[in-house]
Amino acid sequence: MTTFFTRTLFTAAFIASAGIAHALEPATDEVVLTVSGEISEANADGAAQFDLSMLEGLDPVTVETSTIWTDGVQSFEGVPLATLLKAVGADGAMLRASAINDYAVEIPVEDAVEGGPIVAYLLNGEPMSVRDKGPLWIVYPFDSAPEYQTEQVYSRSIWQLDRIEVQP
């Protein structure tokens, strides 16, 4: 009885610790996004690196909205910012989002709500090239609420995104 109990306890502890240690698998393809800073889940030198298939696996959503940079309503598909932050165990108040060209913006973590911004990787069903604001673009559902139609929020909609640092 004691042996069974000990083995059961050991197995449960091993499974629990294995789940934590391997919650975020390493990227197997080209890394398109690196999340660092105040995170608890990492897969590469204290950072969380994502390839496109990893992002696609984080329950993607579609947002149909117009933007000030495009003509008419566009369809964006991507991972909700809130889902991404949960996946990396983000514990901070501010995000510093940076683009390929080192342009950076600050986004309050409180923006990452259900029905809020997404990290888009498809525009009208197609991958976005660097020339066309890709491969990643933080897009707010601008048409869904007047509070998303401000200069401050527009400035947070960074394209050519490749890094997010979670700050205290």
Automatic annotation (TrEMBL):
Location of the Oxidoreductase molybdopterin-binding domain: 72-141
Keywords assigned by UniProt, alphabetized: Signal
A Pfam cross-reference name: Oxidored_molyb
Signal peptide boundaries: 1-23
Protein name in UniProt: Oxidoreductase molybdopterin-binding domain-containing protein
Organism annotation: Paracoccus homiensis
